[in-house]
Structures are given as structure tokens and as C-alpha cells.
Amino acid sequence: MNPLNAVKRAIKKLFASTLRFVELDDENSYPEDKKFVYPNALIQCVAIEKYALSNKIPFIFLSKEKPITVKLGKDVYEAELTRRHLRTQGYYIVLHKMQEQ
Predict the structure, then answer these.
(1) Residue range 23-42, pLDDT digits in tens
(2) Are 39 and 47 in contact (CB under 8 A)?
(3) What is the end-to-end Cα distance of the chain in Å, rounded?
(4) pLDDT for 62-71, tens place per residue?
(5) Could you give the CA distance from residue 48 to residue 78 in angstroms, rounded to a whole number?
(6) Can you name the residues that pair with 71 across neighbouring β-strands?
(7) FRET partner for 18 with CA separation of 20 to 30 A, picked from 2, 51, 69, 79?
(8) How far are the Cα atoms of 45, 53, 61, 69, 71 from residue 65, in angstroms, in the given order?
(9) Contact (CB, 8 A) for 50 and 59
(10) 93, 48 in Cβ contact below 8 A?
(11) Which residue has the higher pLDDT, 6 or 70?
(12) Are residues 19 and 96 in contact, defined by beta-carbon separation less than 8 angstroms?
């Protein structure tokens, strides 16, 4: 077994369990688009709801104001609006799994 592949699998598993990525609609993603609308909290909540419904994940919003907090399945996540890399301009949402208290 290649140790590098084992490390890659471990990193992928770690990120898959602690992060989720939610795409926004085009008019909320790309600032250079003429129809661009900044993705405020309401737009982010709608995108998270679409994500959960399309993936058949039960969800409950714990907070719809910043910081947006949502329970997906058994885990609680906090939403963060993130700007894409310079090469691919735009926004997306990263859901960070919160530690149990």
C-alpha cells in the first residue's frame, strides 16, 4: 500500500466529515454578472435549504442570522460565505461542523 495514498484518503475523510460546500445560484455567485445580487443571509439560507433537500438530509435552522447555524442530520454546522480563488471569481458557502459541547 502506498503511504501517500493512505494520507490522501485520511485527509479526504477528515474534510468530508467536517466541511460541506454549498453552491449558490449564478446570480449570487459571480460579481461580474450584470444580474449579481450579493448573497445575504436570506439567500444563503435558501441555498443551504436547497442543498439539504437535494441531498435528502433532514435540516433545521438554529439561526438564520449571521452566523447562520444549521443542523444537518445529527450534526450542527456554521455557514461561512467564501470567495473563490482569483482564477474562478465568485462566492460559495462553506459549512463548518461545530464541535459538540
Answers:
(1) 898 888 888 778 888 999 99
(2) yes
(3) 37
(4) 999 999 999 9
(5) 11
(6) 60, 76
(7) 2
(8) 9, 20, 10, 8, 14
(9) no
(10) yes
(11) 70
(12) yes
